[in-house]
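Archive maintenance. Older records in this collection stored only the sequence; we are now back-filling the structure field for every entry so that each record is complete. The fields below show one back-filled record exactly as it appears after the update. Entries are processed alphabetically, and DNA-(apurinic or apyrimidinic site) lyase is next in the queue.

ARCHIVE ENTRY
Title: DNA-(apurinic or apyrimidinic site) lyase
Organism field: Acaryochloris marina
Length field: 273
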Amino acid sequence: MPEGPEIRRAADRIASEIANQPLQEVWFAFSHLKIYEAQLGASQIQQVETRGKGLLMHFDCGLSIYSHNQLYGKWMIRKAYNYPQTKRQLRLALHCDRKSALLYSASDIDVLDAAGIQAHPFLSRIGPDVLSSETTVEQVRERLSCDRFRRRRLTTLLLDQHFLAGLGNYLRSEILFVARVHPSLRPADCTDEQIEKLAEAALALPRQSYETGGITNDIAWAAKLKFQGFARRVYRHWVFARAGQLCWVCATPIVKDAQGGRRYYYCPQCQEE
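Back-filled structure field:
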């Protein structure tokens, strides 16, 4: 599933390529949204924003297109009306004179006005966005320590968009590693130092991932490995998707485990229980 950084980068591309210019056409795959095609197609996108893993395109007619990529959704920016060869199902298309923004495989798409955004069942309930400049380490620390969240296992809590918006599977593993916290623990089990490190990592790693296109490893170390010819999948993360490979810090083999069908990774030496 694309996480907050990937959705924000997709939003940036959409804004860069098709915002603030005349649209040729807006097309929806879903019949209940086709009533909006003509009105949106005659409008312009004024702003593209993300809220956690949700993406909003605001049009000058007062309507907005909301989308959530879910597990398999993918945005593609192509030359106008140039569709890729793919087995994915096209769900939404926005065409300008030079470029098209195409959303494949996602089914959570809606057209909303301002009141609809406020009342939306996902947007109205998400926690602070980890990529927002308004979200602070102090806020995250307070949420980790509050009664609502402190007794929940971290591997579950870090995927809960009501806790923090924008985190997902790879960021969960990376945050726990950088904070040196074992995946079995709850915030209630952690020391004050661990809580502080969790709060810092929960913001620093998503923001680094956004800036670097998905790298959560130490940037200098990743650059060194890249220079030496290693593939991106080798140097991208500290622990995620590195089962059996040696920890970059202590050379202990990385362990893969799962909870609720979702995999996570950790170093049993650096993240002692």
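Update note: The chain has a mean pLDDT of 97. The domain at 4-119 is CATH 3.20.190.10 (N-terminal domain of MutM-like DNA repair proteins).
Entry marked complete.
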